[in-house]
Specification:
7 strands; single chain; alpha+beta; two-stranded antiparallel sheet; hydrolase; Beta-lactamase; Glutaminase; acetylation; binds glutamine; five-stranded antiparallel sheet; globular
C-alpha cells in the first residue's frame, strides 16, 4: 500500500503549480504550496502514509462535519434540519445569495459557510462551550487527545472574517440563528483553526467509515444513522459546487478545507486524510482531486 501511495503522490505532485494557496485568511498564505501528503487507515487500524503526511495544518471547513455531528448529538436530526437544508448547491462555499430577499428561510446546507455557522449556533453551550465540544469530538474521533487549535490562524480569520460576519448577521435578521452573533462567530473561527495532520483526518474518516462502533456517544441516537447522514451530506455537498464531478471522478464521500485538507470516507473500509494546500478555483485541494482520483481507480474505491 505505501508503495502505491508514494507512486500516486509522485505522479501528481507537480500539478501544484496550477493552483494557489488561500490568501483571504492572511495566516494561510504561509503554507508551502508544494506540500502533498496522504494517510490511509484500514479497519485493523493499520496506517499507511506517503509524502508530507506529518505536516500540521488547520482543519477549516472539515470541522463542519464534526460540528454537524455535535449539533445532532445535542438537539437531534429533526431540530437541526429545521434551520438548515439537505440540498446541494451550485454556489461557492462563501455564498450569500441564498440569504437574499424572498429566498429560503433556511441555510441551504450544512457544508457552505452560512449553514455551518447556523449549525455552530445550534450546539448547546455558552461562551467557548460550543467550540470545546467540537474540539473534544475531533479529539475523540481522531483518537488524539493532543489536538488543539492554532491561535494565529484563529486571530487572522477573526480579524478578516467580515464576509462570514455579514452572513451571520443576515441569518440573525431572518431568524435562522439566534443569540450573540459575535460569540457564535468566535466559536466558528476557532473550530476552523483546529490543527491536525493527515493521520488525524484518516482516523476521523475511519470512525465514520466504521459507523462509530468504537466511539462512546453520550446521546440516545443511532450511531449508524448519524454516519449515514454525514456520508450522504459529504457526497452531495462536501466539495461544494464540485461535489457532482468529484462523485463521478473520485466516488469517495469527502470534505475539504481551504487550508488544503481533505477528509475521505470509504464506508466500512478506510479512512483517508489528504493534505495539499494548492487550491483549485472552488477552494478544494487541487492535488487532492488528482491524487484521490488516481488512488480511487488504483484501489477500486469508487462507490458508484
Ligand atoms: N474558515 C473558512 C471560512 O469560513 C472555512 C472555509 C473553507 O474551508 N472552505 O471562510
Amino acid at each position: 500500500m505505501e508503495k502505491i501511495l508514494q507512486r500516486v503522490i509522485d505522479n501528481n505532485r507537480n500539478l501544484y503549480k496550477y493552483g494557489k494557496v488561500a490568501d483571504y485568511i492572511p495566516a494561510l498564505k504561509n503554507a508551502n504550496i508544494k506540500d502533498c501528503g496522504i494517510s490511509i487507515i484500514d479497519k485493523d487500524k493499520n496506517i499507511f502514509s506517503a509524502g508530507d503526511y506529518n505536516k500540521k495544518f488547520t482543519i477549516q471547513s472539515i470541522s463542519k462535519i464534526i460540528a454537524l455531528m455535535q449539533a445532532i448529538l445535542d438537539i437531534g436530526i429533526e431540530e437541526v434540519f429545521k434551520k438548515v437544508g439537505y440540498e446541494g448547491s451550485e454556489k461557492p462555499f462563501n455564498t450569500i445569495s441564498y440569504l437574499g430577499e424572498n429566498k429560503t428561510e433556511k441555510a441551504i446546507n450544512p457544508m457552505i459557510n452560512s449553514g455551518a455557522i447556523a449549525i455552530t449556533s445550534l450546539i448547546k453551550g455558552e461562551g467557548d462551550e460550543k467550540f470545546n465540544k467540537i474540539l473534544n469530538l475531533v479529539r475523540t474521533l481522531a483518537s488524539n487527545p493532543n489536538i488543539d487549535y492554532d491561535r494565529d490562524v484563529y486571530i487572522s480569520e477573526k480579524n478578516t472574517g467580515d464576509r462570514n460576519r455579514a452572513i451571520a448577521y443576515l441569518m440573525k435578521s431572518k431568524n435562522i440563528i439566534g443569540g450573540d452573533v459575535e460569540s457564535i462567530l468566535d466559536n466558528y473561527f476557532k473550530q476552523c483553526s483546529i490543527n491536525i495532520d493527515t493521520i488525524d483526518l484518516a482516523n476521523i474518516g475511519l470512525s465514520i467509515a466504521n459507523r462509530f462502533k468504537d466511539i462512546e456517544i453520550n446521546a440516545d441516537i443511532d450511531k449508524k444513522k448519524i454516519s449515514s447522514l454525514l456520508i450522504a451530506i459529504m457526497t452531495h455537498s462536501g466539495m461544494y459546487n464540485f461535489s457532482g464531478q468529484w462523485s463521478v471522478e473520485v466516488g469517495i464521500p469527502s470534505k475539504s478545507g481551504v487550508a488544503g485538507g481533505i477528509l475521505s470516507v470509504v464506508p466500512d473500509k478506510y479512512g483517508i486524510g489528504f493534505f495539499g494546500p494548492s487550491l483549485d478555483k472552488n477552494g478544494n485541494s487541487l492535488l487532492g482531486h488528482s491524487v484521490l482520483k488516481e488512488l480511487s481507480k488504483e484501489l477500486n474505491l469508487n462507490l458508484f
